[in-house]
Design goal:
The complex is a heterodimer of chains A (208) and B (190). Chain A is α+β, with helices and mostly antiparallel strands and 208 residues long. Chain A is built from six helices and four strands, in the order αααααββαββ. In chain A, α1 packs across α3. By secondary structure, chain B is of the alpha+beta class. A four-stranded antiparallel sheet of chain B has the order 1-2-4-3. The N and C termini of chain B lie far apart (95 Å). Classes of the chains: A alpha+beta (208), B alpha+beta (190). At the A-B interface, α3, α4, α5 and β1 of A face α2, α4 and β3 of B.
């Protein structure tokens, strides 16, 4: 019963929506065709659907227009970058620089090699000897020096008048700004009374 | 029967829902058109946008790579310029001996050796020998080698006191190295 009421209510609404005359309360009857209550709302739904699809189409078209605008500007930006690249390559060629793909493949090795040379160049034996001269006290004589520039380790052999002088030398190196980590390898008192010693220490290479 | 399926169409047209069929067809047409616009117009535009973006990014990277490479090459040219040419190795060795003489240091013999490096057109040359002289002269000799126009490295220096204390003669075992460039390593164009 309640279902019949519901169907009847829907039908009334549909008739009001679908028939302008009924909406205004005027009497309207169509004798030419059989009345079907669901046609009007179906037509309305279809029209709304058509409207929605139309809006979606407009939205798509507007989006496409915006994207094409973007595409055009990007195309121009791409051309600009490619032109700049071509100019750069031309300029490099004029300067005698090879920027071919083969040359670029070797470039990292060349840079590494050049950096190695520069690093090697930063070590100066003259500067090292000057600093060593300043650090070694008067009562010490150096017999041999070996320096490994790769890890800046110095192997020093020398002779001193007394063991205290060797200790003084070690302390001097400990406090020195350019030398660090002095390690006494061995000492030996000779028949002459001189003390011979082996010392290793590290050198802080500092560019002027 | 004029057309196949015409009967079926006429039958359908007599159905109660027939009046809304044109609307349904219209909406279906709109759907197809909308899909066409979405897929063919907007889709194509978006595809083109993605392609151009990738191309632009690639071109930017290429440009930056070339810019950096050009700068690096220009810097490298300056480094290569201080390396002696391979053909200048013999005069260079002679030059070291001459320098020793000028600094009053004895350099009786030098041995030469060449080694390959990671860079195809660069060769490491090693000169090894013994130098004898007063400490001041030896220091001057070392300084002159280090500040030479050609890139010379003193790789190893083993100081050995020799002779008596009065004549103050010292002996060094010295290992000097340099890097020789071939003709292909570019030097700066004038």
């Amino acid at each position: 019963m309640s279902l019949d009421n519901l169907v009847s209510a829907i039908r009334d609404v549909a008739v009001r929506v679908g028939q302008p005359a009924a909406r205004h309360g005027a009497f309207a009857i169509n004798m030419s065709s059989r009345y079907r209550w669901y046609l009007a709302p179906a037509r309305l739904v279809i029209m709304l659907l058509a409207g929605a699809i139309g809006l979606a189409m407009l939205w798509d078209i507007s989006q496409a227009w915006l994207v094409w605008q973007d595409v055009e500007s990007m195309e121009s930006a791409l051309n600009q970058v490619q032109d700049r690249d071509r100019d750069l390559l031309k300029e490099a060629q004029q300067e005698g620089l090879d920027l071919s793909e083969a040359a670029l493949q070797v470039l990292p090795k060349e840079i590494e090699f050049a950096n190695h040379l520069i690093e090697k160049r930063s070590f100066s034996w003259t500067r090292f000897l000057t600093e060593l001269e300043r650090a070694i006290p008067q009562r010490i004589a150096v017999n041999s020096i070996r320096l490994d520039p790769a890890n800046a380790t110095i192997m020093l052999t020398g002779s001193a008048r007394a063991l205290e002088d060797v200790t003084t030398l070690t302390v001097t190196f400990q406090d020195h700004p350019q030398f660090k980590e002095p390690v006494l390898g061995q000492h030996r008192v000779m028949a002459s009374g001189l003390v011979e010693f082996d010392l290793s220490l590290r050198y802080r290479n500092r560019n002027p | 029967m004029m057309f196949p399926g015409l009967d079926r169409l006429q039958l359908t047209w007599r159905k109660p829902y027939a009046p809304i069929l044109p609307w349904v067809a219209f909406v279906a047409g709109l759907c197809v058109l909308s899909y066409g616009i979405h897929a063919l117009v907007l889709g194509a535009a978006e595809q083109e946008q993605v392609r151009l973006e990738a191309d632009w990014l690639k071109a930017r990277q290429q440009l930056n790579r070339h810019k950096e490479a050009k700068k690096a090459k220009a810097d490298l040219q300056r480094v290569w310029a201080v390396l002696p040419l391979f053909r200048d190795f013999a005069p260079l060795a002679l030059g070291v001996t001459e320098e020793a003489k000028r600094d009053q240091v004895t350099l009786p013999a030098l041995s030469y050796k060449t080694e390959k490096t990671a860079v195809p057109d660069a060769t490491k040359a090693v000169l090894q020998g013994t130098v004898t002289g007063r400490y001041e002269d030896l220091r001057r000799f070392l300084h002159n080698l280090e500040s030479a126009e050609e890139l010379l490295f003193i790789e190893d220096l083993n100081l050995i006191r020799s002779g008596n204390v009065q004549d103050q003669q010292l002996t060094f075992n010295i290992r000097i190295s340099t890097y020789l460039r071939g003709e292909h390593l570019q030097s700066p164009t004038p």
